[in-house]
Structure to design on (835 residues):
């Protein structure tokens, strides 16, 4: 197989995983590992290390834009975002039956309330709300967070019927550190040579990690990156943009492609942010719970769902844009997403202060028409090119 | 939780008393800077009124400002202003109303400018929007901010570790910042004194709420209830004025109870009680009187509501405990209605339907509030199923007049009440899972 067709084959595989609303990869994993359990998690971040160390498969449940919503809409008013509808649809249609439990992290009131709905709708399945501190003092928020981690650990031990040993947890931290490094390498390569590593492909590669075991995902990332960088692609006259606001409900991959086709290289983004939540390696030695808490409190990324202690909302976005030499920023948030949309005016103000051009639009995971977005992004790219050439 | 009063409205004596209290508070705010008083902005659910009183600071509650703007018909303009500034149409209108008001000079309900905050006390209880709201305000004011994160009752109870976390934050974050801003040392005995006053008022407040168990109910626990919770959920908990108000209110209600009469509405005493409802969700403020009229015109009285629990579930036994001042504040914060998980909310509403012998649960789903609204359709189904009494569903918004369609709500309410009537006339209670006034779609796994 040529390098070109090899990379295409990898992308096709990741695309098939992305489209598969039946989570067959999870079913297959369970068949290959009789008796082993799979545990789902909603956006944004959960410490997958704990699930992994329990010998279980962590599975990202981030809604689905392609499935027909038959019953999900009956649970939510029109002014609530789309993600919980598709998650409920996945649940009531039995597509999540391969999951033995599910974690709902603290991110917004919708996911929070959904955790309680799940308890009512699926009383026999392990359902846990995973609270995270908004106080970042290790003695205060850190203590609370360690207790939350231990509570998840305890529940997973009960679910799995065996203890999670510190050694196993340290080993899981190490393998997820590798995963974080590989994702960083992917993003870094994309920012350096976006013509070789298109954002939509990179997206699919990251997304594959939502259903694949981390070891397999690590191998996939290596293979993809090597093949993609060996491509014989030339740089185009595209502008460089950072996309922000898409940390929870995901845009359809077609929308990411649309932005690229409209002349925007996406050199950074907050898609599937949970995978890149921790910005540096977690200490794989010593007390693993302490290490995970330290990473969350002191080395996690900034996001609208997280309290901005220093009041400098939007500054992290500006810093990324500068670091990645972006020409502009695309604010792209799901309709009715309170965290993203309440945060946006502050981020916009920071971006304006830094004199970075920006544009903004809304989407939903089931958006099917991209014409307007294409035109808007195209105009944005043109205006930046014009401005930089003048 | 209103405070805003319009003219030509029938007023109970307690309402006049409350009006004077609120007037006095806004007067004190207007003179705060002149009198060297410090001002703390904070939220209603889980507010630390007693602690603030112990530091002798004056609270400003932006939700109250927003709802008052709604009642004074100013919110539409304020929201428009905020949207022009780039705030999304999709988000909570309380926030936009507040931002719009701020950009218009921050003029309070008495026509005087509200003082800028000396401290933003971000008591993050039961609603994610609070976090963003004060981050937004922080961009506008040059003042410190204290964050108090209250964990969610995800497993239906307040965990000891959660209490400890809140207490630790009080000790290391909230109290030191209050000390810094006021220049005063924290006096735990002073806090205890205020907590003692809270307990007195809380007992009387619960007696008022419980009175709705009688037939006819002497109170309306939703529309009237928003007045009754006003002092308790805002700056008057833990004060002598609060104690006086609740004693007077209780006496007033007990008088009506003894006389066997129903609630007083803005249009005068209510006629015959024909329907007893439990209501979930906040009210609409922009057409508050019109909204209430739709109910009392039909003889529908609200005997219990969840909105009157956003500042605590006193009726389920919570009382501030002066013996454990910081722990009790933590429990108070964690116990507010919007900090309960969905199963707890369902249980509570079912209990209300049963205990208050209501005809059913009506939900007013407000567009603004994901904290309340996400999951309400499931709540409705479950409460119908468990109580066997029909549910109704109407939609509006808190302070965005664009989302109040009077005709629509009236229609739905009337057909809901008709449905209750029909069930009665055939002598059966509603069957589980029967269709209700809005959503009749197959649900459930
Ligand atoms: S898209 Fe936004 S509002 Fe919806 S669940 Fe996610 S964070 Fe919450
Ligand atoms: S979302 Fe709801 S609870 Fe939160 S500020 Fe808005 S109205 Fe209040």
């Amino acid at each position: 197989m040529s390098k070109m067709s090899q990379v295409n084959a990898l992308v096709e595989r990741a695309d098939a995983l992305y489209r598969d609303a039946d989570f067959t990869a999870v079913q297959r994993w369970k068949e290959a590992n009789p008796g082993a359990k799979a545990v789902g998690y909603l956006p944004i971040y959960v410490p997958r290390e704990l699930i992994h160390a329990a010998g279980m498969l962590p599975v990202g449940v981030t809604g689905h834009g392609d499935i027909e919503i038959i019953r999900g809409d009956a649970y939510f008013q029109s002014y609530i975002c789309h993600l919980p509808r598709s998650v409920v649809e996945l649940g009531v249609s039995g597509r999540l039956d391969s999951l033995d439990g599910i974690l709902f992290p603290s991110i917004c009131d919708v996911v929070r309330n959904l955790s309680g709905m799940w308890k009512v709708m699926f009383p026999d399945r392990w359902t846990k709300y995973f609270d995270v501190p908004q106080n970042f003092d290790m003695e205060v928020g850190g203590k609370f967070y360690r207790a939350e981690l231990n509570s998840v650990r305890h529940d997973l031990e009960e679910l799995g019927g065996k203890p999670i040993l510190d050694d196993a947890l340290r080993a899981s931290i190490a393998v997820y550190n590798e995963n974080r490094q590989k994702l960083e390498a992917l993003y870094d390569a994309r920012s350096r040579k976006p013509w070789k590593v298109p954002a939509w492909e990179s997206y699919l590669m990251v997304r594959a990690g939502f259903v694949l075991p981390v070891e397999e995902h690590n191998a996939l990332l290596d293979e993809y990156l090597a093949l993609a960088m060996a491509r014989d692609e030339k740089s185009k006259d595209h502008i460089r943009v950072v996309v922000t606001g898409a940390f929870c409900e995901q845009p359809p991959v077609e929308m990411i492609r649309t932005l690229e086709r409209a002349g925007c290289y996406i050199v950074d983004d907050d898609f599937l942010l949970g995978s890149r939540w921790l910005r540096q390696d977690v200490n794989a030695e010593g007390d693993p719970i302490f290490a995970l808490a330290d990473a969350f409190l002191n080395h996690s990324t900034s996001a609208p769902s997280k309290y901005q202690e220093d009041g400098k909302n939007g500054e992290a976005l500006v810093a990324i844009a500068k670091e990645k030499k972006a020409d502009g920023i695309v604010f792209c948030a799901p309709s009715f997403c309170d965290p993203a949309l309440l945060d946006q005016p502050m981020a916009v103000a920071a971006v304006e202060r830094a004199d970075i051009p920006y544009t903004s639009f809304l989407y939903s995971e089931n958006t099917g028409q991209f014409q307007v977005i294409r035109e808007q992004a195209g105009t944005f790219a043109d205006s930046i090119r014009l401005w930089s050439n003048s | 939780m209103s405070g805003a009063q319009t003219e030509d409205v029938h007023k109970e004596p307690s309402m006049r008393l409350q009006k004077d209290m609120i007037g006095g508070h806004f007067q004190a705010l207007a003179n705060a800077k002149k009198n060297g008083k410090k001002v703390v902005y904070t939220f209603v659910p889980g507010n630390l009124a007693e602690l603030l009183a112990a530091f002798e600071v004056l609270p400003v509650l932006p939700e109250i400002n927003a709802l008052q703007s709604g009642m004074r018909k100013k919110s539409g303009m304020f929201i428009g202003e905020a949207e022009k500034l780039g705030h999304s149409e999709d988000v909570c209108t309380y926030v936009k109303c507040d931002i719009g008001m701020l950009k218009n000079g921050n003029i309070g309900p008495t026509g005087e400018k509200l003082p800028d905050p000396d401290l933003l006390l971000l008591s993050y209880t039961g609603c994610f929007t609070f976090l963003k709201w004060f981050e937004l305000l922080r961009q506008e004011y040059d003042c410190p901010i204290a964050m108090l994160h209250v964990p969610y009752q995800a497993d239906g109870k307040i965990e000891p570790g959660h209490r400890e976390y809140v207490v630790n934050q009080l000790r290391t974050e909230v109290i030191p910042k209050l000390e810094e801003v006021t220049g005063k040392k924290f006096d735990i005995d002073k806090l205890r004194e205020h907590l003692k006053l809270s307990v007195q008022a809380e007992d009387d407040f619960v007696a008022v709420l419980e009175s709705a168990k009688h037939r006819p109910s002497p109170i309306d626990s939703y529309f009237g209830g928003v007045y009754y919770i006003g002092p308790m959920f805002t700056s008057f908990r833990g004060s002598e004025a609060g104690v006086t108000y609740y004693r007077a209110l209780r006496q007033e209600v007990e008088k009506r109870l003894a006389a066997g009469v129903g609630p007083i509405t803005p249009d005068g005493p209510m006629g015959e009680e024909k329907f007893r409802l439990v209501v979930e969700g906040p009210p609409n403020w922009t057409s508050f009187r019109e909204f209430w009229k739709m109910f009392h015109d039909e003889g529908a009285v609200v005997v219990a509501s969840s909105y009157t629990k956003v500042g605590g579930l006193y009726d389920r036994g919570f009382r501030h405990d002066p013996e454990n001042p910081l722990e009790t504040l933590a429990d108070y914060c964690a116990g507010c209605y919007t900090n309960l998980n969905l199963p707890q909310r369902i249980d509570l509403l079912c209990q209300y339907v049963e205990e208050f012998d209501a005809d059913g649960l009506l939900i007013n789903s407000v567009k603004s509030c994901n904290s309340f609204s996400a999951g309400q359709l499931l709540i409705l189904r479950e409460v119908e199923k468990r109580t066997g009494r029909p549910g109704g569903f109407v939609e509006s918004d808190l302070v965005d007049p664009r989302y109040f369609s009077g005709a629509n709500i009236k229609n739905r309410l009337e057909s809901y009440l008709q449905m209750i009537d029909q069930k009665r006339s055939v002598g059966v209670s509603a069957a589980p899972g029967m269709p209700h006034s809005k959503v009749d779609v197959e649900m459930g796994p």
